[in-house]
Design brief:
Chain A: Its main location: cytoplasm. The complex is a heterotetramer, with one copy of chain A, one copy of chain B and two copies of chain C. Chain A has helices at 14-24, 67-77, 87-94, 151-159, 209-221, and strands at residues 2-7, 28-33, 44-47, 81-85, 101-103, 111-119, 135-142, 146-148, 163-167, 178-182, 188-191. Chain A is α/β, with parallel strands linked by helices. In chain B, the strands form three sheets. Chain B has a seven-stranded mixed β-sheet with strand order 8-10-7-11-9-12-13. Classes of the chains: A alpha/beta, B alpha+beta, C alpha+beta. The interface between C and D is medium-sized, with 33 and 33 residues. The complex binds adenosine-5'-diphosphate.
């Protein structure tokens, strides 16, 4: 099993994701440069946080043009796992791999802190090690994490149980308190909070591990 | 007014230029002297006092004199740090002023070859209550720091924010950056190796920062007057590319020297690298990438456009540079070469536009003053003040609540929660404690960081206040479980040409020196910002102490919160 | 040739920034500011080309990058 | 009444956003995109009033809040 962490020119949580997988989860992981076209060897792709191409105009807007995103689309179509964290979530929506959009936090400020998340669906490749209704404490750090979508889209997300994580205390203004959603097939997750920042015990919080443990269990189970 | 006066030079200084050159300078040359001999670049009013600072110690690998100071923390690892002010730009345009301040200090750190791992900032504003202006400045500065630092992926882990009337017209924005480096990777800003090419990477050169007191030229038309701008706009994306490209370049053996383009732009960068290296340099400004086509050579040479670096490259390795820089989407350009004739030559193609002894521009040529000083009147008055007449508060509960509500005491969480303080997953103690702690990956160690200065005490007694600032910083580090190791100092004062202000500066330097010697925390880098005053008043003397300490075992850090019911509370000290 | 692209939020999408500015204006004493919406103005300088070609290029750029059509709409003028 | 305010950076101020977007468009294969500058479009809905009054109010709002006149300039239209 091997993970790949995509590196855009101004990714900056690439290193955090890399160390979380390698040192904390003990799995194989490589960095993948944004101009890479071949990513077949990876089972799980992590699109990390940061500011991709500066995030000018809109977060994640330019990243959808990169060569590697073509490969990520193909990877996702094959049903393989993709997790987009923070900027990664923004990129996935801009690239059309997840519905909706992320706009500026309702208080118009960057928010850094720790969010309490509700686990809404534990029957996914990313949450199978969690129990429904469980609370996760996961760091957040974003200026544009306010999830918006048209009513029909929201309805569909609810009906299909695609809303996986919600905020207990919704600070950014997301519709339906959405913190993380999966695509219809359930193999692509986008979430604003940073599970990779909550893996190392020295940092005082290891709640994020369960997300990666779920992915690893899913991949091992070969489902 | 004479041209030299418009450029901020005094008559004696102009005469000195003529003497050093052996002729009258031309306009470009005079402009270059003007910026290099400005207070900001030459430290002409402060240099004479630096000899008091303790600058050596068993940990010190690089003291003052380079882009940043460096200390050894063991395990072949070292820590680079420096503080820098961006006060006046932030007063004009708070967002961009603060953002470019952060950008500048980050470049100083990676120019040493170090990976920036933490940012801190020390802010001073006028009274917050009932002042829309102060609120606007504060919001803008905090957003600027957040906008730039967050995008760079460098956690902002600490700082301080104080409000006091003396900063009303002249806020202070000091930014500090800390980097980590392996011993053998340390790079210096020197142009070694005759014939080595000098290369330029990063943003193209515009008219940014061409303005202010040090710029004037009769040749420039009114139209260009309008085009020039003192406001620099930060581009953190470009800086991130520069950072990654520079660190990757410094991992090869292609780079002999590296210098960021900061104050006084190209002029300062070529001059400093030349004098620290073989002594001379020859640059062709027709090769400088420009944002606008009709720029005057003076504008090109003194522009302070952000996000640019100068590289001295081993001859024949230009392609290595092009390849790595290209990978990060940047362009590189050879703009000149290293010489050993001691001359700084600026050409436009074949035509020589300026030709002067490189050293004459730098601190060895620049004037050095030791101004008169005199104790401020208010100090005597306050010493005689009778404190016994101050009544006890009637309602202690209410007073307590009022104190907690005062902006200077109230929690600053709303500020530091706008900064990403967790990125790089190494922030072991987050903002909100006495000092921040960062673990050093690959070792068991950690470093603790803090900035401190109570300027009210420095106003009452600059020498004692400065000692207290050092002591407070040290206590903060100790409270986090670290052993204090070194400081970087951000010295913010009024005009050194006024005896009372120079007294404050001098006393502060002496106080800092004494305390640093006592605590064995040498001064490894710093910055001086003078003329922080308006026609009404000068700021309180504000010598900001940025201190780093070392934790041999980062797991043994300590935070300030009460841990469990029943724990005993003790008071140490007098 | 110069092209101006105007990108605005769809009516159904709320605009906290606009609301904040409306609040600030009202607080400052400007009466009758009933709504504020913030959009983007993107000025492009394109190499000269026939108008039809320019139109096609601009529309594609808008669809692909300049606007996020999930939440935004756009108009443009070719000057 | 509707007012549209256009806020753009002064010509002397560099626009890293615009430059980055220009780079992205060019890399994506759009040729001849010579420059991109990004500004703001602010749509105000004001209670009806005589045009002269509206003008005065809008100009003051621009100077005081809508534009940062240190680095930006503005124009507006009253519709
Ligand atoms: N107050 C100070 N204490 C110690 N060193 C100082 C102080 N001020 C400046 N220096 C040192 O002088 C050198 C020049 O500083 P500075 O001009 O701020 O650098 P830059 O070239 O980045 O502007 C640096 O090495 C700096 O560390």
């Amino acid at each position: 099993m091997k993970f790949g962490v995509i590196v855009f020119p101004a990714s900056n949580c690439d290193l955090d994701s890399y160390y979380a997988i390698k040192d904390m989860m003990g799995e194989k992981v490589d960095y993948i440069w944004h101009e890479e076209e071949k990513i077949e060897e990876y089972d799980g792709i992590i699109i990390p946080g940061g500011f991709s191409y500066g995030d000018y105009l809109r977060c994640g807007a330019v990243a959808q043009f990169s060569k590697v995103m073509e490969a990520v689309k193909a990877h996702a179509e094959k049903g393989k796992l993709v997790i987009g964290i923070c900027n990664g979530f923004q990129i996935l929506t801009e690239a059309g791999l997840l519905p909706g959009a992320l706009v500026r936090n309702k208080n118009l400020k960057f928010i850094c802190g720790t969010a309490q998340l509700n686990v809404e669906n534990n029957d996914t490749a990313f949450t199978n090690k969690l129990t429904e209704g469980e609370t996760l404490r996961i760091p957040v750090a974003h200026g544009e994490g306010n999830y918006v979508a048209q009513d029909e889209v929201l309805q569909k997300l609810k009906n299909n149980r695609q809303i996986v994580l919600t905020y207990r205390d919704n600070k950014n203004g997301s519709m339906e308190d959405i913190a993380g959603i999966v695509n219809e097939q359930g193999n692509v997750l986008g979430m604003m909070p940073h599970p990779e920042r909550a893996c190392d015990p020295i940092l005082g919080n290891t709640d994020g591990r369960k997300i990666f443990e779920s992915m690893i269990a899913y991949l091992k189970g070969g489902r | 007014m004479n041209l030299y006066e418009e450029l901020g030079l005094k008559k004696e200084e102009y005469e000195r230029v003529v003497e050093l050159l052996g002729r009258e300078p031309n306009e470009l040359e005079l402009n270059m002297y003007g910026v290099m001999w400005s207070e900001h670049c030459s430290y002409k009013h402060s240099r004479a006092l630096f000899k008091h600072f303790p600058t050596t110690g068993k940990r010190v690998l690089q003291g003052p004199g380079e882009n940043a100071g460096i200390i050894d923390i063991g395990d072949n690892m070292a820590v680079a740090m420096k503080i820098e002010s961006h006060n006046h730009p932030s007063a004009v345009e708070p967002y961009q002023g603060a953002a470019t301040g952060v950008g500048g200090i980050i470049r100083d750190i990676f120019a040493m070859g170090a990976r920036p791992v933490a940012l801190l900032n020390s802010l001073r504003f006028g009274e917050l209550e009932n002042s829309e202006r102060v609120q606007y400045l504060l919001d803008g500065v905090v957003e600027g720091i957040s906008g730039y630092g967050n995008c760079m992926g460098i956690p902002t882990v600490g700082g301080e924010t104080f409000f006091n009337k003396s900063y009303e017209g002249n806020p202070l924005v000091n930014a500090m950056c800390v980097g980590v480096i392996e011993h053998d990777k340390i790079h210096r800003a020197s142009a070694k190796g005759v014939g080595n090419p000098v290369m330029y990477i990063g943003a193209s050169t515009g008219r940014d920062g061409v303005g202010g007191a040090s710029f004037a030229s009769v040749e420039l038309t009114e139209e260009s007057e309008e085009k020039r701008s003192a406001v620099q706009v930060g581009d953190p994306f470009m800086e991130k590319l520069l950072l990654e490209a520079s660190l990757e370049l410094l991992d090869t053996d292609a780079i002999v020297g590296i210098q960021d383009l900061g104050a006084a732009g190209l002029t300062s960068a070529v001059c400093e690298t030349a004098t620290r290296g073989e002594g001379g340099m020859d640059v062709d400004i027709s090769r400088i990438p420009r944002r606008e086509s009709d720029m005057h050579p003076i504008e090109v040479m003194i522009s302070e456009s952000q996000e640019r670096m100068l590289l001295i490259v081993r001859k024949g390795q230009e392609e290595t540079v092009n390849r790595i820089v290209g990978k990060w989407g940047l362009h590189s350009k050879v703009i000149g070469k290293v010489t050993d004739d001691g001359r700084l030559r600026v050409r436009d193609g074949e035509e020589v536009l300026a030709d002067m002894p490189a050293e004459s521009l730098d601190s060895s040529g620049a004037p050095k003053y030791y101004k008169d000083y005199q104790e401020p009147k208010h100090m005597k008055e306050s010493r005689c003040e009778d404190l016994t007449g101050i009544p006890q508060p009637k309602d202690l509960n209410q007073t307590f609540m009022e104190l907690l509500r005062a902006p200077n005491i109230a929690s600053k969480e709303w500020i530091y929660n706008q900064y990403d303080h967790m990125v790089r997953t190494s922030t072991v103690i987050k903002p909100g404690s006495d000092a921040a702690v960062i673990r050093i990956r690959g070792t068991e160690k950690g470093i603790a960081l803090t900035t401190d200065c109570n300027s009210r005490l420095c106003y009452l007694n600059p020498r004692e206040g400065s000692k207290i600032a050092v002591a407070e910083a040290a206590r903060n580090l100790v409270a986090a479980g670290a052993k204090p190791a070194a400081i970087t100092d951000g010295l913010n004062f009024g005009s050194p040409e006024k005896p009372e202000r120079f007294y404050e500066f001098r006393e502060s330097v002496l106080g800092l020196s004494e305390a640093c010697r006592e605590l064995d925390t040498p001064v490894i880098s710093g910055n001086v910002s003078f003329y922080n005053e308006t026609d009404k008043a000068a700021i309180y003397p504000t010598p900001i102490v940025g201190m780093v300490g070392v934790l041999e075992d980062v797991r043994k850090h300590m935070t300030l919160d009460f841990k469990e019911e029943g724990n005993v509370i003790m008071l140490l000290g007098e | 040739m110069k092209v101006k692209v105007y990108v605005t939020l769809k009516d159904s999408i709320s605009d906290p920034q606009g609301t904040a500015i409306q609040g600030a204006l009202t607080k400052k004493g400007y009466e009758g500011v009933e709504s504020v919406r913030i959009g983007k103005l993107i000025e492009l300088e394109l190499s000269d080309r026939p108008e039809a070609e320019a139109k096609e290029a601009v529309e594609e750029m808008c669809e692909k990058l300049l606007a996020n059509t999930v939440i935004e709409k756009y108009t443009y003028e070719i000057l």
